[in-house]
Amino acid sequence: MAESGCLRDGKFNNLECNQFIQLGSSIDRHTDFLHGTGDSIEDATGATISQANGAAGEAAADFASGAAYSLVANAISTYAGDASAIALVALPPAIKNTFCILQFTGDMDEANALRIETYKATDTYAHQHIGIIHTDNGGSDAAITHHGVMTGGTKKVPLSTELIYTPAATATNFLWTNSEIHFYCKRNNRWIVKVYSVAEGTGATGALTVA
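Above: the chain sequence. Below: its structure as tokens.
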């Protein structure tokens, strides 16, 4: 007896099964972004980006996918920078349903910026207020959540291609070790963002800006 869907006459219809699997993966990634988790991408191999990699990114003339300073799509990448020099990390191409996480593993306590740039500066950050979610450790909500930033442009024509974090040369920055920034592409060429703060000390210092 024939069955509809993936199973027909005891045989799998691979095309339909693949479509269901891809849809399920997309739903899982979107759900993870909404809830601040990374379960759907935790088994993927992300990039391990050092301060030196970030400095190379800052000096680069292009932002090719797969470079040592680029985040991996649908994976959790880490950044071990200490803000000893200006650095740049690049996002992968903003393709619908792509989800990636940047986790900080270094202690950024010098006053040099980390620039998080869209792929080749052609994708944009969707027009949004990027708020700060206070998750753990020191500081207070009042001291930390005011660090959010509004991206440039309008809903129809977003303009920002860089998210810039500049710590202070002190031990009170709101993005410390284990802080995370989550990026999700709901629409091709546009990223939406959530920032999860693990503060050092009061978390009163550090600044997010856009360009």
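The two ends are 60 Å apart (CA to CA).
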